Amino acid sequence: MKKVFVIGFALIFVVSLAIVAVAAEEMYSLKGPVVSVDAAAKTVTVHSVEGVTSAADNRWKGNVTFVTNDMTKISMKKEKKTFNDLKEGQNLKVKFHEKDGKSVAVEIAIMSEKKAK
Length: 117
What we know:
The chain is of the alpha+beta class and 117 residues long. It is built from one helix and eight strands, in the order H-E-E-E-E-E-E-E-E. It has one helix spanning 2-23, and strands at residues 28-38, 43-48, 50-51, 62-67, 73-76, 79-81, 91-99, 102-112. The protein has a five-stranded mixed beta barrel with strand order 1-2-4-8-7.
């Protein structure tokens, strides 16, 4: 009986790992300055200068618009920030994945404050 329990538990564990692996989405990362912020749409557009090189069609070159949501983590030097802290001209590092053809920001690190003009 104990052997059946152990085998059953092991089988459930392996199946759950397989489900997590299939559900996991490929993550990407890029860096660049903020071109625009749309508060109504909760999007930020970044001019890609460094990062993703694996896309065959180079879809992340130039300006890339990221969708944000309540799960997007925004920070600067380990300090928690909000969407409202994003400003044009700031340099960002964005970790993201694709969902339904959109680039969804998972983490946004503000690398520098907006430069004075």
